[in-house]
């Protein structure tokens, strides 16, 4: 199975099969065990990894840099505007130059096509550290967390309340792939990417998962095993009409009342950063169901897995 990964880009989980995603999770679980026992796992000793970020980040940046250090490699973090990209150097030139120095590129950006352009001009792998369309590294950590807490995916129900954006798309794909029902809040005027939705429907018909968009918070939360919240105003476009979005999504807040509809042993997840009082309340994120910091930790373990699998 390992041979299947070498040199591959990780731009979206839609490019990987269920078996491959499960293998990444198994690799992450193994690396997590090694890290917990303080066993060395310098599988990328001497490698160099470039990181270009066009948006803010705490978790993704630090988890990748920690992961790269633990793997024995060196990371170079660059804010896009501090590179020549910021003054308009063509991506195809930057990509080919970075490819000569570095063994992989981790990139956070806006359009998915920017990542695709880097991938086209680099021989070494490009890893999506969040685009407007998807957040595949977040999804790997989310899946690892769900598997750790619930043991298996099949038959679980996820209730999702958050922006119809990258994290929504990733979770919809993850649920459909793994056979979890995905019940999501969908106010009027919002809709997912048709490309991602079609892929999710295809995966769901193979796995038996349901994909349901609803305006009824009771229906969304009823019997949920996993409750997932995300901001209503993501970085990039959605930030601009923040007030309207907060209003549109207000009926879908994950508060203690809403959590009562979920199963007693439901877990509460959030990719973070979160806005207390908007998509969730302080009581919920600080409460007994919350696994948000285990989820954040798993970013590092799953990123180690993907890096060690795809880097030459
Ligand atoms: N969840 C996540 O990607 O967080 P950051 O924006 O802090 O990287
Ligand atoms: N949807 C969020 C995720 C942040 C990690 C955003 O893109 O802002």
Tags for this model:
single chain; 312 residues; alpha/beta; Rossmann fold; four-stranded parallel β-sheet; globular; binds phosphoric acid mono(formamide)ester; binds norvaline
Description:
Helix 5 crosses helix 6 (166-178). The chain contains 12 helices and 9 strands. The protein is of the alpha/beta class. The protein has 2 domains: 2-134 and 298-310, Rossmann fold (3-Layer(aba) Sandwich), CATH 3.40.50.1370; 138-296, Rossmann fold, CATH 3.40.50. Strands 7-6-5-8-9 form a 5-stranded parallel sheet. It has a 4-stranded parallel sheet with strand order 2-1-3-4, sandwiched between helices. Strand 5 (157-161), helix 6 (166-178) and strand 6 form a beta-alpha-beta unit. Bound molecules: phosphoric acid mono(formamide)ester and norvaline (NVA). Phosphoric acid mono(formamide)ester binds at residues 57-60, 130, 138, 271-273.
């Amino acid at each position: 199975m390992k041979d299947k990964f070498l040199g591959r880009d990780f731009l979206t989980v839609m490019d990987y099969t269920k078996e491959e995603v499960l293998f990444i999770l198994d690799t992450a679980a193994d690396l997590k065990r090694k890290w917990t026992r303080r066993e060395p796992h310098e599988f990328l000793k001497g490698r160099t990894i470039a990181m270009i970020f066009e948006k803010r980040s705490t978790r993704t940046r630090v988890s990748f840099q920690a992961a790269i250090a633990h793997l024995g490699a060196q990371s170079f973090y660059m804010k896009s505007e501090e590179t020549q990209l910021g003054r308009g150097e063509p991506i195809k030139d930057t990509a080919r130059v970075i490819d000569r120095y570095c063994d992989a590129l981790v990139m956070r950006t806006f359009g998915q096509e920017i990542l695709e352009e880097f991938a086209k001009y680099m021989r070494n792998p490009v890893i999506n550290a969040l685009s407007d369309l998807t957040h595949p590294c977040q999804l790997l950590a989310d899946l690892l967390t769900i598997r750790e807490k619930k043991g298996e995916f099949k038959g679980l129900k996820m209730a999702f309340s958050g922006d119809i954006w990258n994290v929504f798309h990733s979770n919809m794909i993850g649920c459909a792939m793994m056979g979890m029902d995905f019940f999501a809040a969908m106010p009027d005027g919002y809709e997912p990417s048709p490309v991602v939705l079609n892929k999710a429907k295809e995966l769901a018909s193979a796995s038996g998962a349901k994909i349901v968009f609803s305006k009824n918070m009771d229906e969304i939360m009823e019997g949920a095993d996993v409750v997932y919240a995300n901001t209503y105003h993501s970085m990039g476009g959605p930030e601009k009409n923040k007030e309207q979005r907060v209003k549109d999504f207000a009926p879908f807040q994950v508060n203690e009342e809403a959590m009562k509809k979920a199963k007693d042993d439901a877990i509460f997840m959030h990719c973070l950063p979160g806005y207390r009082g908007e998509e969730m309340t302080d009581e919920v994120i600080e409460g007994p169901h919350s696994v948000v910091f285990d989820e954040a930790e798993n970013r590092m373990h799953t990123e180690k897995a993907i890096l060690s699998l795809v880097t030459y």
